[in-house]
Design brief:
Helix content is 14%, strand content 43%. The chain has 152 residues and is mainly beta. The protein is globular and about 50 Å long.
Amino acid sequence: MERTGETAIFTNMCMVLDEADNVLVLDRIDPGWPGICFPGGHVEPGESFVDAAVREMREETGLEVSNLELCGVKDWTLEDGTRYLVFLYRTHTFRGELQSSEEGEVRWVPFGELPQMTLAEGMLQTLHLYGTPTLSEQFGWEQDDEWQNVLK
């Protein structure tokens, strides 16, 4: 039997909520993807998806998170054919002292204010995944030199 597959890059993003349902945001300074998003990053080879999200949260925010809940997946195909996947998590469980990193400033904001903020590209649709239990995927593709996004 012939084995088929595709090359993939695995990443994560985690929405942390406090007791008042404020969310922790990262104001990214990366010129390739600037704006407000939730902290996260790449999964290292041999690392579990949850462990990677916990590590990225610690590196970008100083917080130790636990009890992560998978909320959905955001995915698209890069120009070279590589599939790019972002596993989306949320949690109310964290401890530690909040600190910003070289990725950008982190701060707490009310979830309802996010749509009015300068969000990173694609984050508005991603917020719908976090807020709508019946949705589980944000799939993107390029058509006629424009990016299309569908929530499923």
